[in-house]
Amino acid sequence: MERLKSQRLMLGLASLGGMVLSYTLLSHSHLLRPEIVPPAREIAVAFSELVVGTRPPPPMEGDVHAGHQMHSSDHVGTLLQQGVTLQGSLAITAARVLFGLAAGVPLGILLGLLMGFSRRADDYLHPIYVLLRSVPPLALITYVMLWLGHSEAHRLIPIVYAVAATMVIPAYHGARDVLGTYVLAARSLGARRWLLIRKVLVPAAGPTVLAGLRYAVAIAWMTAVGSEMLMSENGMGNLIVGGGLWASRTQTKADPAVVIVGIVALATAGWAMDALARAGTARLTRWVR
Amino acid sequence: MLPRNKKNNFFFGPGIRTRTARGLLSLGALAIVYGVAAEIGRGRLPDRIWLGTHYVENVQLLPPYGSLAEEAVFLLQSGILLSSIAVSAGRVLLGFMLGAAFGILLGIATGRATRAEYLADPWVTFFRFTPALALLPLYVLWFGYGEGTKILLVASSVAVVTLLGAHQGVRSVPRVYLDAASALGAGPGLAFRKIVLPAALPHIFASLRIGLGLAWVTIVVAELIDARMPSLGYLLTLAGGYPRVSTMVVGIATIGALVLAFDLFALSVHARATRWMRRTG
Amino acid sequence: MTGPAPRLDAVDVGYTYPGDTPTQALESVNLTVQDSEFVALLGPVGCGKTTLLRILAGFLRPTKGAVRCDGAEVDGPSPQRGYVLQEDAIFPWMTVRENVEFGLLARGMPPAARVEVSSELIRLIGLSRFADAHPKELSAGMSKMVEVARVLAIDPAILLLDEPFGALDAQTRARMQDELARLWERRRKTVLFVTHDAEEALYLADRIVVLSSRPGRVEADIPVELPRPRSLESRFSPAFSALKRRIWETLS
Asked: Is the pTM of this model over 0.80?
């Protein structure tokens, strides 16, 4: 068992290292156009500049290819002028994600549990829920903006909407699954409404709901980045498209090095949040066999 | 002991007729609420709105049914709506098929082979947490704007989900089935075709259904960002430019209806393919 | 030794589960099953019965000793030894007929011949009406009989059954025992049947091998000379009770 684990870790690390190494070799080999596949060094430079927030004075002029030097200075330079840093953008996006989860998760769970536990509520609400769920949250963004103007709210609403719509499903199924056996068992033990909900229904539906939570975290990141790409002057979505608004965004000359830095940062942040959610889930559902 | 409140009980609940009636009732109520709100709102809701950079005038935030119907008829008769649907649905379908084929094949491969899984693991984890939308600028840089980028983006978001579904499906095939098959003399090939694949199928189908939903989310964003060709995203962008809310609402409703139709289709295929399962629904 | 080689011959078989705390499941088991014999392997829960059966089926390699089947060393699962697992292993995505035909498909038998074999077996277990139904329509007992029929279809040298009726209620269990006995009267297969139920062992077997609790050893080898076919009367006969008493004494 131990050996298997360490073998797994070694192979995983080897695979990561191998990929990074082969990318470095390939991108420096002059086989591919650097404005399409940025050299690994350029990615590292973009990363460090975006973290530090300033650009060091150019070391030696002749050392750098004139073409993509200009290209990369475009995107990173613009961002730095606006005072954008990688960690700052990540924090803004993460804050939006967290807000979306904080508002959307309870909303979705409440609705899901209500529909799962009460057939009457299910009959009345399910058709409406199906209609609402079918509309991609980001398709609403233009309409929401008309109501609320250009503000933070219309970036947050699609995230809340997406998270809530996602959380309804596991809560609903969790509730339906426990209804049969556990509820009858608990009722026959004399449990009344509140005790039933607190001690039986919520803990029994818990694991399904928490499993759905991990999925909601991924949806929240996706929606947040999407809405930032569409209309926001900050956050990771803005960082990778390089500013601009609406259709004008299609004209920007984004630097692939910045985009790659952004993608890696987003993947890492998503992974970290998922690891937290998983750890929390494991603690809360220790009793699951 | 029978529960006291028999009327509102899950096991002795009302029949399908009552349930359908309730559903229709609430949908009807929703429609009426909208109609009444649109009437009350007429002339009362603000019609001049600040959009961060400029004001827009003559906005009808809740267009009444009359103007919605008028708009729908116009969009249908001019052919814009149908060609938009065709373009967007075509992109979704093509991207979905490409992404699903790639994701399922890779997921099965990584689920089957232990070593390959270890090698692929960090990459699966990496792409799993990459919001597929973030790949858009990269694809634009690589392939420019156009069909290829949009289809590739849809394929990417579908591939991630189906890869995980197929991977987990293959991994979670109960040991007993494989043991029983090999005791009956099945070699690896037959065991794969007749045991692993069917047992993994529910997982794969569940991920396909999620992937189809994600495909629509992805294409809407891609079309909103690169709104040139006639497409549903283009329709929304155009409506946002004027702004013309009735166009917007018709566009949103069309997207919703398409997503719903695709989902119902996926659900019926899923149900059909997993009829053998002990628990249905 | 005279006569042909025994169907199954386990010599000095021992098994220790590896791990942080190695567990010795089997100490040293010697077991011989002759052709057309119905042997029950009886022992308390956790005595290593299933471990022994998995070794005989070829899913586990013994850490000590060796197993021979029809004179050939056992080194891996083979349709020569039809193994019915303790768990539900009927393939739920296949119909009853597809389940029964699976081993024949693995052998590459043409469809027409497969149908012939499966129809006969499905009729024998009384499920002709359900031949094209999925297992979800069957009761737990009938699912298990399909698993037995599935193994019989490939005509193995010996049938290894691991507590097939363990999860059933008493009445269904008795009915399934009758079904199995009837099937055995027809086919006269060599059977090794694992159970923790002394009465089940007595009702079905020609011979009962009692295993001690962990680490498993052969505690007793008791021939059951009750007349066949057995029926409800056999279960209440004095000979039955006497044997049952003897087994109880061995077990405690």
From this structure: yes
